[in-house]
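Exercise 7.
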Amino acid sequence: MATSVYSINKGINKPIEFKGLKAQYIGYLGVGLLCLLILFAVLYIIGVNMFICLALILVLGTALFMSVYRLSAKYGQYGLLKKAGARNIPQQLTTNSRVLFLSLQNQNQ
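Solution. The predicted structure, written as tokens, is:
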């Protein structure tokens, strides 16, 4: 009987990483897979052909894996949360340089 051992790499002050997924993306993948399982059960109970159910779930599962891995690679541990938070900052408060503040400081002197 062959057994597989999966290691979860977590060092001190490092995010949980499993098979290339970091931090909250493991949860996103788990919730997505649970939703796909529920969708399969609902479609099967309704009476949709089993092969159509399997094909649909395989396509959606592949899309889920690809999108979650892409998000994990693109944004990293906190990047997606930072991007979501950046949308809530009003444009009037954002600045890309310190020139305005340095000129105010020079005028006071």
